[in-house]
Prior knowledge:
CATH superfamily of the largest domain in chain A: MetI-like
Largest interface: A-B, 28 and 34 residues
Order of helices and strands of chain B: EEEHEEEEHHHEHEHEEHHEEEEEEEEEEE
Structural class of chain A: mainly alpha
Shape of chain B: globular
Largest sheet of chain A: none
Radius of gyration of chain B: 25 Å
Oligomer: heterodimer
CATH class of the largest domain in chain A: Mainly Alpha
Structural class of chain B: alpha+beta
Number of strands of chain A: 0
Strand content of chain A: under 5%
Order of helices and strands of chain A: HHHHHHHHHHHHHHHHHHHHHHHHH
Helix content of chain B: 10-25%
Mean pLDDT of chain A: 84
Low-confidence stretches of chain A: 302-312, 592-596
Strand content of chain B: 35-45%
Bound molecules: adenosine-5'-triphosphate, magnesium ion
Number of helices of chain A: 25
CATH architecture of the largest domain in chain A: Orthogonal Bundle
Amino acid sequence: MNESASLFVNRLGLKLRQPQVILGLLLLVVLAGLVVVPFLQLVHDTAVWQEADRRMSRLAEPGDWTLFHYLRVFAGPLSVNIFYRPLIHSLATSLTIALTAMLLGGLMAWLVVRTDMPFKKTIAVFAVIPYVLPSYTLALAWLDFFKNERIGGAVGICSYLFGVSPPDWLAYGFVPIVITLSLHYYPFTYLLVSGALVSLDSNLEESGEVLGASRFRILRRITFPLMLPALISAFILTFSRAVGTFGTPYFLGAPVRYFTLSTTIYSSIVNRTPAVAYIGALVLILISMVIIYLNQKVIGEKSFVTIAGKGLLRRVTLLGRWRWPAFSLMAALIGIAVFVPLLLLLWQTLMLYPNDYSLGNLTLHYWIGKSQATLAEGESGILRNAQILGSAWNSICLSVIVALVTGMMGILIGYAVVRGRKTRLAAVLEQGSFLPYLIPSIAFGAIYLALFSKSIGPLPPLYGTFLLLVLVCVAKNLPFSARSGISSMMQVAGELEEAGMMAGATWLQRFRRIILPLTLAGSLSGFILAFISTMRELSLIILLITPETRTLTTMTFRYVEQGYSQFADAIILLIVLLVVGGEFLARRIGGKRETI
Amino acid sequence: MAMIEIEGITKRFGGVTAVDNLSLAVDAGEFLTLLGPSGCGKTTVLRMIAGLEVPDAGEIRIAGKTVFSAQRGLFVSPGKRGIGLVFQSYALWPHMSVRQNVAFGLEIRKVDPEEMKREVAEALAYMHLEGMEDRYPQQMSGGQQQRVALARMLVARPGVFLMDEPLSNLDAKLRIEMRAEIKRLHREAHATTVYVTHDQTEALTLSSRVAVMERGRLMQVAPPREIYRRPASLFVADFIGSPTINLIPGKIVRKSEGVFFDGEALSLPAPALAAHIGAEVTAAIRPEEIQIETGENEDAVSGEAYAVLPAGSETIVQIRREGRIFNVRVIGETSFDVGENLCMRFLPEAVSYFHRNGGDRIDTGRE
Ligand SMILES: Nc1ncnc2c1ncn2[C@@H]1O[C@H](COP(=O)(O)OP(=O)(O)OP(=O)(O)O)[C@@H](O)[C@H]1O
Ligand SMILES: [Mg+2]
């Protein structure tokens, strides 16, 4: 070997020995395994004959390439039912939801940050709660209120109170889906826009005022354009979430056969036509990618508003006689989004016999009651029910493990990205960790089903294992934990680790004793977010759950299907308690850490 | 014996060559300072010695042991080089108390707890930090943090101290105090020290040798006095000294009276430069080597006081002559008025000459 070549090899060898390089490569492999491989498997499965296809076509040769599924979905006699109508429903609901949520959240943000509305602080505290609740909480509460005779079982309170049965369009389908999900998603806009408003220098507005522009004109010509990036971001974020959500469209849509892409994916899996589900998932992924690409294109770097403002002058718009009406509106909004549904759910769980709203009918049976043959087929109250407690345990384990694993991976990604700054590896890793964000939840479940329902080489199929749930939840939460890992790693000067190197500490020792303690507090939000979102996750795991790996959310789903709304509602409340408790606990622990 | 030997190391960051084929040997027990303008590569050299940066080419030996060789693909990790490093930012771990900061290295080396306790206490006492063991770095002043950083380095008893501008974050008074502290440390520990600074007073007062760098290369390595008195190049002459040295462009000519430097606003006899007749040169004269005389004088050079800048123990007088400003340092106070006519006297043997082209020193045989 000639001299310069050996020099080059030596140099490469030394480069590859750096911890951030080793770690970065490892993480890339993990990312590929968690996202890219399952995705490719899904694409593959849509284009080959499946075992189940033998029922549908005599040509089916499992494993051979075919366009059969694509033709069936896009250009077959069933296309309208299994694809086009659900697609239109998905787009229609998601667009309306995104628009409504954007308006509600934007209005609330402006009122809280920029006006003299009374009790602004209180509103600000409660504003984000709807997002912490499982997305289908409102859907279940809606059913408790508006359910009519259509789906059998007891009717909702509405019939009892007003003596009229709500029409189908009000009880099920488009209207309730849009209302409940808008109320669930508006906090996105609220957070993004209030962040932008806080950092917006009102000098810009004042200079408009000096020029003699009217209040309204300033709002329209200066404030609104400056808020546009945040609004568009919020719109897109909301849209891509809404299009991939499963619970609400299923609970509120299925009774009237109002199917969206996400619920079609589910029923295609249940009906053993996985390829149809996979194509649906591909379309969802495509929609989500296009829209996120457009977002980047239209507003580029500005899409993520940073809260930069410190001592900025913030001028308050005086609402005058609109102060109290504005407050009432916001209070009502929060009431309808949070308190009314939770109370409805609670009330429902306390009713011994459905549809009997008298005080004498109140009971704790569905919480703590012993099994009684005459009630709910002998199931005992949820706090005594081994199945539910088992699934609660599953949920807690899953959420804690996912929070820890994904949070840890976030810190590791942060390490590899920040320490490898300016290298291609770091850039690829940073962008790669964003990939799961492009894949809507239900589609994510679908690609995991595609890959892990079969054995891969020596690995047995992971379908039906707890591990698979951990994997999918970790992957889905990675974008957020990676981002919080990167930003907290930025706060840790490289010299702090180098001082550890000088002391002779190995990489592991440095990581455990220096990097980890210093990034943990900063990454806490990533941990909490992963915990919360896993605890209430339904769309992501609904396709992957088996009786042994049931979680609270899938138990709710089962009880709703069976018509036991008391149990379903009680479990939702349990989830809410666990989420709030988990967050509280994490903040306590985190708070202690920060005071060091 | 050379404690640190650096041979032909180069370091590139993307397109920037931060250190360019640099060779340097530091003797055991020596205090060597790397001095140079911002961005010249001082920190990079230090970090390569420490092992925090991997050179692209060259070889480094510490205490006779090769710790890096590009040829052989050899790289010894920082912790195994037997060196201690003080960072400019101190890099104290904010989540550890002073005691934990200092003990960390010993814990890593699994030192017996009793001994560790003793060593930590000793290092802290040595740096006058008794009673602060349980404080956290954020609760201490800059000077105290600096002491902790030094204690943390000392406790491992390294054979080599590396320090990167350790005093640059301190105010002027503390800086002088810590300067003395570092000098004491070096004397008592007898450790080979490589010290980075861009403060030349620091370099000149602390070091046994100074290495002046520019754009990734060494310009001159010599004891402080020599660096100051016999700068090897125009760059070094210009960089060292405050106020800056007086530089006068000119030419060596032969006149009837002998060989002369014939420069702008100034002509000086230069008998030692007979071999350089016709050369384009720059004459350099330190401000304290010009004497001021009042009134007219035959062979002195007259000018007009342009500014008088008293600074306590000395006064800088700027004298304008034919559009040029000369800096002159006078001990004590002066009673010159601005605009007053003054005469400057130059001692021919105190003047250095450099080739205008390339900036090399012209040997005048002066010691
Ligand atoms: N990690 C890095 N990536 C890219 N360029 C770098 C890096 N570190 C140093 N450089 C570049 O190398 C050159 C030398 O930097 P170095 O930090 O060694 O200078 P310095 O002499 O210590 O300067 P200062 O007195 O300002 O500390 C500079 O041009 C700097 O921009
Ligand atoms: Mg430096």
